[in-house]
Design goal:
heterodimer, A: alpha/beta, Urease, subunit C, domain 1, TIM Barrel, 2 domains, eight-stranded mixed sheet, B: alpha/beta
């Protein structure tokens, strides 16, 4: 109960704060992500949008100003695929295109509090990887006390998983998927009426997929599943984004050739034992995809330590050879674009949503803290008011 | 000594005697101030000298470390369990003579993987299911002859307090035999078994009765010659551990210790050490419902408790260096955090004279890093163990 109240206190401001006038954040190093970094710049917000970002941007006379000298302003991070912040993500039935994570979102889940603490401004909450056709996903902002107030895009994608369900072979799994797709294809050819006459509302999301309205997020646990996904998309003519397993890099060329956009597995490097030499071999799961020119988003992993934090994943990618600028893009602009929100989110540019985070230092440094987060121009998090954080962290430096 | 024997002896010693000079890097000795730019000379598997200026000795192999950072190899004192072996002997709840070393496969892949993350010394111990689990050893992660890899065969006796040794157990006589068909079945029972094992030995000792081999292990612990690593998360279990340590005389090392910050002063007053596993999500899903804090490390250090950090997870994002980086984020001093993954665990494991700092006379276990050890983007580029560069794995 105490936790719920604390969560509400941190999150409550999104829907309610009366931030009508313009806002100017002055003096911060602005990492625009889309262009050059701006030293000691000014960012002006009006009506929830960025009106300008640069060194010589004029501050409106009536703007409320925030002095951010010595701090760093970044677009709020974008998590491109997660099951957190909701009730159980995997329906037991194999094919449930009609369900939506909208109905399972828990706005006061402490996870959303943590998101803000780590500078996350947008998340794609999707059904899990254990169901064949898992349902529809939503893109949300953390903050707000109802699912509606968090919503950026409701039922934005349809989740499909190529991971065979427990007790099922890959062949049977794929056959079941084709059967569903065949039936809906037939339905569409018959001008939208089922055999019995009336359209089946449970299949409506599948129809939208095959009509090209809603793209799929297809989970490919192994590199070989990438080829299966491509084959399916070709046969049934649907649009898709891929969520890769850790060896997805093995399909880098195919992914690049098809210009597919992907979400990487949380493990950016991993060990394998070479079966012939018994030598320990280390695999880099991010560089081959980057070298092939694939647009990708990094993903965090709730069961890990550092890797549960998206900014940490970007720092790890740099460790494994990704240039810093692209590591930052892979947690901001690229996931925004993959989610179809590149025009609104992911970078600090004129006309985009004012959804950003003010940091005490470099975004990839473990010693950096998120001081404030704004979503659509409204302040939704302030570290100085974060009582829950103070409760577990009081040690004097 | 005949000339032939002498020749053989020399031939055997020769590769060990090769001198290596690593020069030009920033050196974090962790035994004093950092050297902004210095050299480490290795001879015979040991550190011969650490200095700012050094002549290249004749015949020495020179390793250029300009722009790099040198630090001691990391020491993982964690209850990692026994890689490649079963960790809980179910013959009894009290198995002091069981040795983790007998079950470790030193050739298993874990060594190369740990080494790549910078760990050169590792504690391997029995698991947490037994009240008294057996003897843990300290080994090195480098390939090489088994004898060169074992630092201590019996570094500590492993014990457990709290719900873990009893959870899921049922009285042995009421059901089918099996691992869980055994005592104890309550927290009280766990403490009683722990206490009885020691008190039986103490009674026999004072009566002058000859002790059995397992009993001798307990007697050594009771004399303070063998530290006892006790897994205890919650404050109530930590209090029990402190009480047992006081009553029975053993040196206490707390494993996990999620609520140790609550008893920081009491732990400091008996000079107990804590092996702390860091957490990021304080208060949530903590082991056995314990109350965790982000600044637990800093608080314990402020109270003067000896604290070694444990890896936070099995993947790359939970290594010892990451644990140290987050300890600093959560209020620890930089030097304190780095010593908590090197010199401090070495001391707790009783191998502080061999490893844990870069000082003349110690084993030449050291890391060459691409940058600052507390920066996530830093890579462990080269690893030296006993003076030899270990294959990094590809």
């Amino acid at each position: 109960m105490r936790r719920t109240i604390a969560a509400m206190a941190v999150l409550a401001s999104l829907g309610s704060a009366p931030e009508e006038g313009p806002l100017a954040i002055k003096g911060a190093r602005i990492i625009t992500v889309s262009g050059d970094e701006i030293e000691a710049g000014v960012l002006v917000v009006r009506g929830g949008k960025i009106e300008g970002a640069g060194r010589d941007v004029e501050v409106p006379w009536d703007a409320r100003t925030v002095d951010a000298a010595g701090k760093v302003l970044v677009p709020a991070f974008v998590e491109a695929h997660t099951f957190r912040g909701m009730d159980r993500p995997n329906e037991r039935m194999g094919s449930v295109p009609f369900v939506s994570t909208f109905d399972a979102l828990n706005p006061v889940d402490p996870y959303f509090e943590d998101c803000l603490r780590q500078g996350l401004g947008t998340l794609h909450v999707a059904p899990g990887n254990e169901t064949l056709i898992g349902g529809q996903s939503c893109v949300v902002h953390p903050g707000g006390v109802t699912a509606e107030s968090m919503m950026v895009a409701r039922n934005a994608f349809l989740k499909i998983s190529l991971k065979p369900r427990a007790g099922t072979s890959r062949m049977a799994h794929l056959a079941a998927l084709r059967k569903e797709l065949d039936e809906v294809s037939e339905l569409l050819k018959g001008a939208g009426t089922a055999k019995g006459g009336a359209p089946d509302p449970r299949r409506e999301p599948m129809e939208r997929l095959l009509k090209g309205v809603t793209p799929a997020f297809v989970y490919c646990p192994t590199a070989s599943d990438v080829h299966r996904a491509i084959d399916l998309a070709d046969t049934y003519k649907f649009r898709m984004k891929l969520v890769l397993g850790r060896d997805g890099w093995r399909a880098a060329e195919e992914i690049a050739k098809r210009k597919l956009e992907v979400v990487l597995a949380p493990e950016l490097a991993y060990w394998e034992t070479d079966e012939d030499s018994h030598e320990e071999v280390r695999r880099n799961a991010v560089l081959p995809l980057w070298k092939a020119g694939v647009k990708f988003a990094l993903q965090s992993d709730p069961s890990s330590f550092g890797a549960s934090l998206l900014w940490y994943q970007a720092a790890t990618a740099v460790k494994h050879g990704l240039p810093r600028a692209d590591a930052l893009r892979s947690v901001t602009l690229w996931p925004a674009e993959i989610l179809g929100l590149g025009g609104r989110l992911g970078s600090l540019e004129k006309g985009k949503d004012a959804t950003f985070a003010l940091l005490t230092g470099d975004p990839l440094d473990t010693q950096t803290w998120v001081d404030q987060v704004w979503v659509l121009g409204k302040p939704v998090y302030e570290r100085s008011k974060d009582a829950a954080l103070r409760r577990v962290l009081e040690a004097r430096k | 000594m005949s000339p032939l024997v002498l020749l053989l002896a020399l031939a055997q010693a020769a590769p060990e005697e090769e001198a290596v000079l690593i020069r030009g890097g920033r050196i974090l000795t962790l035994a004093g101030p950092d050297l902004v730019r210095g050299s480490v000379l290795i001879r015979g598997g040991k550190i011969a000298a650490v200095a700012e200026e050094m002549e290249v000795p004749e015949g020495a192999r020179v390793v250029d470390a300009a722009g790099r950072v040198l630090m001691p190899g990391l020491v993982d004192a964690g209850p990692a369990g026994v890689p490649g072996g079963s960790v809980n002997e179910d013959g009894s709840e009290v198995t002091p003579l069981v040795r983790a070393l007998d079950a470790v496969d030193l050739a298993a892949p874990f060594a190369a993987r740990l080494r790549r993350s910078g760990v050169t010394t590792l504690f391997v111990g029995p698991g947490n299911r037994n009240v008294i689990g057996g003897l843990g050893a300290v080994v090195k992660t480098a390939a090489g002859p088994r004898t060169a890899r074992i630092l201590r065969e019996d570094a500590a006796l492993k014990g457990a307090i709290g719900s873990l040794p009893s959870s899921d157990n049922y009285p042995p006589r009421t059901a089918m035999p099996g691992f869980f068909g055994r005592r104890p079945t309550t927290r009280m029972g766990v403490e009683w078994e722990f206490r009885k094992a020691f008190e039986d030995v103490l009674r026999k000792t004072s009566a002058g009765t000859t002790l059995s081999n397992p009993e001798r292990v307990l007697a050594r612990a009771a004399r303070g010659e063998l530290p006892v690593h006790v897994a205890a998360s919650r404050a109530t279990d930590l209090e029990t551990a402190l009480r047992l340590s006081r009553d029975l005389g053993f040196r206490l090392v707390i494993e996990e210790g999620h609520e140790a910050w609550k008893l920081a002063d009491a732990l400091a007053s008996v000079k107990a050490a804590v092996l702390l596993r860091p957490t990021l999500h304080a208060g949530r899903q903590a082991p056995e419902g314990s109350e965790t804090r982000l600044d637990a490390f800093a608080r314990l250090r402020e109270a003067g408790v000896q604290v070694a950090l444990l890896p936070a997870g099995e993947d790359e994002s939970g290594t010892l260096l990451v644990a140290a980086a987050f300890a600093v984020r959560h209020g620890a001093g930089r030097e304190d955090a780095l010593r908590a993954v090197t010199a401090v665990p070495a001391g707790i494991l009783g191998v502080g004279d061999r490893v844990g700092t870069l000082e003349a006379g110690k084993d030449a276990d050291l890391l060459v890093l691409s940058g600052d050890p507390l920066d996530v983007t830093t890579r462990v580029e080269r690893v030296f163990v006993n003076g030899r560069e270990a294959a990094p794995g590809r």
